[in-house]
Design brief:
The chain is an alpha+beta fold and 487 residues long. It contains twelve helices and 28 strands.
């Protein structure tokens, strides 16, 4: 399922697209789920949360089930749908593949009718497009930004892009037309004599250029691009003393790197290249970007990511490259641990609502909610091979605590609301005196932060004791400020 930005813009009016885009960019999408084209998400808008549901049909068109006014009254695709789809795209879409598809569409149009910044046509001057790299391009690659130098060869001369007359008609080969379209997409304007590209852009440039070469300034030879792919072998082992994983990458390269150097990886999300000296080959399978240092030696996976790597990343890697996994299935033990909780509250003096998450290492899950796609694990500080897993009982107890306060709290994303000034101020005081001492992280949004800052919050404690006089008792009232001072 591929839904482009252009598709999203066609779904609705510019007003509602911009509204959804603004919510997404402001981080208002709290969470979303997607299964078989059916979406459900929660968006935080002002003091309230909006739950939105919709689904995509086989043609990728939306059927809106959002309860908002825009859908119910106007029958339009609302900004809530747009915001959730933009969040989904941020995690799943491949901008490079979308760009390749756009360029393929451009090439279906006759050269004379294309909207290039350069005029093209069969009647033009025979021209070749050359690409060069700076002498220190490998250092630039390690920093993630490579400077590209395009030039045109026509009438026996090499010319920079800015030296060509705007009205000059060029006759380029089909491969050069394709490369020109890519460079103009990347640069976003008429080609500069020198312009920077990202590592992912550079990987796609190599895809488009092969099998050919790139000139390297002040170098005895060009960078030769081969078309036959190289299949890497990934080895995963366990350091039992530290509990970390040891990951190494091996490749059988036709030309080994020069003495004292290592191969370089040029990685995009779903494509990549390996460079050895003056030679480059496409990768038949691509390791994740976080392992880009593999060519220089072993990469250590820290304990905070071990279980996630083994259960999420490794199965995906095994589907696309050769993996020698030397970690036994029973190498680790898992027990339930009490996780820290993250409570997000928003609202004002009229009502408050919120969301409760349990935090397991790097992963937050909705308390009492379904298991997420990501692995929940907390390293045991005492044992390098032991981890704490999800604890449904602790999550249920946390929800029960909020239920005593007046929340519905059937799950972390269904806390419901509390109304009334007195009840809300009581909640704020309990946050300070009950939750924070337990290690809960509480985030106050909307007007709650300023209300809590201005309110004088006191903790009242009442003790009853038997009095000396029969049938009487003694009551003691103690008031304590937020700073701990007793009044």
């Amino acid at each position: 399922m591929l839904v482009s930005i252009a598709d999203l813009r066609k779904w609705t009016s510019p007003r509602y697209y911009q509204e959804g885009e603004a919510w997404f960019e402001a981080g208002k999408v709290e969470h979303y789920t997607e299964k078989d084209g059916e979406f459900e998400g929660r968006i935080s808008i002002r003091d309230r949360s909006q739950i939105c549901r919709f689904k995509l049909d086989a043609q990728g068109l939306p059927h809106n089930e959002c309860p908002c006014r825009v859908n119910r009254v106007e029958g339009m695709i609302c900004g809530h749908v747009i915001a959730i789809m933009l969040a989904w795209r941020a995690e799943h879409a491949d901008p490079l593949e979308e760009r390749r598809a756009r360029i393929d569409q451009i090439l279906q149009i006759e050269p004379e009718r294309r909207q290039h910044t350069r005029r093209l046509g069969e009647s033009g001057v025979e021209t070749r497009l050359h690409l060069s790299l700076r002498r220190n391009w490998t250092e630039e690659l390690l920093k993630g930004e490579i400077h590209l130098i395009p030039s045109f060869e026509l009438e026996g001369r090499i010319r920079r892009p800015d030296q060509l007359h705007p009205g000059q008609v060029l006759k380029l080969s089909e491969s050069d037309q394709r490369m020109l379209a890519l460079l103009e997409e990347i640069n976003g304007k008429p080609l500069d004599p020198v312009f920077p590209v990202t590592t992912a852009d550079f990987a796609q440039i190599l895809d488009f250029r092969a099998p050919d070469s790139l000139k390297v300034l002040e170098s005895p030879g060009p960078l030769q691009l081969h078309s036959k792919p190289v299949l890497p072998l990934l080895t995963v082992d366990l350091d039992r003393k530290s509990g970390e994983l040891l990951v190494t990458l091996k490749m059988d390269l036709p030309h080994p790197p020069p003495a004292g150097s290592s191969p370089l990886l040029v990685l995009a999300p779903r494509s990549g290249w390996v460079i050895s000296g003056q030679y480059a080959w496409p990768l038949e399978a691509v390791p994740p970007a976080e392992l880009r240092g593999l060519c220089s030696g072993t990469v250590r996976i820290p304990r905070s990511r071990v279980m996630r790597f083994l259960k999420e990343d490794l199965p995906e890697l095994e589907n696309r490259l050769l993996v020698d996994n030397r970690v036994p299935d029973d190498a680790f033990t898992t027990t339930s641990v009490c996780p820290p909780f993250h409570l997000r509250l928003k609202g004002g003096l009229q009502f408050i609502s919120g969301v409760l998450h349990a935090r397991y290492g790097e992963v937050e899950v909705l308390a009492g909610g379904p298991d997420p796609d990501k692995v929940c694990s907390i390293p045991d500080p005492e044992d390098p091979l032991a981890y704490g897993g999800r604890n449904p009982e602790a999550e249920a107890n946390a929800l029960a605590r909020l239920q005593k306060w007046g929340f519905a709290a059937s799950s972390g994303d269904r806390l419901g609301t509390i109304e009334g000034q007195t009840s809300i101020l009581n909640v704020l005081s309990r946050v300070r005196f009950e939750l924070e001492p337990l290690g809960w992280e509480v985030e106050l949004n909307g007007n709650l932060e300023s209300i809590a800052a201005k309110a004088g919050i006191l903790l009242a404690r009442i003790d009853f004791q038997q009095a000396d006089t029969p049938d009487w008792f003694q009551m003691n009232l103690t008031l304590r400020e937020t700073g701990g001072e007793t009044l």
